[in-house]
Amino acid sequence: MVGPTLIDIREHIEALATEDGQYYLRCGRTGDRPIPAAGNRFPDRATARAAARATEQYRSALRRYDPQVPYYDLIVCEEPPRDTAATQARESETDSPQNSLTEPVLTDSATPERRDLVEFCHRVAGAVFETLSESGYDGVESAVMDAYFEHAEAVGDPDELCLCLLESMASELYERLAPADQADLLADAAARLETPTDDTNPLDATLDALEQRGIIESYTRSPYSVDLDGGAGAVVVRISGYALSAENDRLPVLPVTLELCRHHAEHRPRSIQVTAVDSGWQLTCVLADIGDQNGLVSAPIDGEV
């Protein structure tokens, strides 16, 4: 891409941030705190405004890959001191129009659940695109965009289109990268996402995150260490209401694997096997170290059980 890369912009925003900063960014219309500034705080209002400009630059660059990336009316907010009379005044000040950096572009008609799903898709896509760019996979990057633009001509629903982006991405990664390269790319992309704060049970945290973001509607899972033929430890998960669609006897599992990598940084998934069941899909996730890696971004469907 021309100009600063997504990685450059993200690193710039992180360099502006401080752990004890009182200022943060959010959308004045929806209250969302968009990537890549989500979770960051800044030492003063001027620095926060600089971060807001960089955030807009980042999301503008991301729209080269996905024109449906939401626009946000970013404002700078101050974390008010507790139990002070100035709290309401400061909240009123930070919500005032003069702090707005862009005019609202999209109406806020989507439900919070749909916004969560769309933002999750964009966050996953952005992390993968950053990694493709940094790793020199220009051909894969171009192929994903070509497939995505074909969908964009036929799909009018922006929520459905963001799912098509992940489906196209999973298909092209499967077709164009060896399993070992897929695994490395997923690990690098997961490292670009927000670090989980509580991973006492990484698998449940992964599935809960996918459920909260609308990627799945519900799930059940077995205990750990289900024995496979090779003796490798695995876990069986049944999911219903999966947002992504199967195609050519394969199920795109990119967002599932990426979340597993984010929560299971030390024991990343080595293989995912998929079986169709009445209520949805059964995923057998191998987390132990085995020789063969497969099904990491797009898994073959074995058939009904």
Unreliable spans: 82-109, 226-231
Task: Quote the beta fraction.
Answer: 5-15%
Radius of gyration based on Cα positions: 20 Å
> End-to-end span in angstroms?
46 Å
Average pLDDT score: 78
Note the run of SSEs as H and E: HEHEHHHHHHEEEHEEE
Question: What is the total tally of β strands?
Answer: 8
Question: Total helix count?
Answer: 9
Main beta-sheet strand count, sense and barrel state: 6 strands, mixed
Structural class: alpha+beta
Outline type: globular
Which sequence of strands runs across the widest sheet? 3-4-7-6-8-5
How much helical structure, as a percent, in the residues?
40-55%
Describe, in plain words, how this protein is organized in 3D.
This protein is an alpha+beta fold. It has nine helices and eight strands. The protein has helices at 6-16, 45-62, 87-94, 112-135, 138-154, 158-176, 179-191, 202-212, 254-263; strands spanning 23-27, 74-78, 218-221, 234-240, 250-252, 271-277, 280-286, 298-304. It has a six-stranded mixed beta sheet with strand order 3-4-7-6-8-5. A two-stranded antiparallel ribbon has the order 1-2. Strand 6 and strand 7 form a beta hairpin. Helix 4 (112-135) packs across helix 7 and helix 7 packs across helix 9. The longest helix has 24 residues, at 112-135.
Summarize the structure.
The chain is an alpha+beta fold. It has helices at about 5-15, 45-60, 85-95, 110-135, 140-155, 160-175, 180-190, 200-210, 255-265, and strands at about 25, 75-80, 220, 235-240, 250, 270-275, 280-285, 300-305. It has a 6-stranded mixed β-sheet with strand order 3-4-7-6-8-5. A two-stranded antiparallel sheet has the order 1-2.
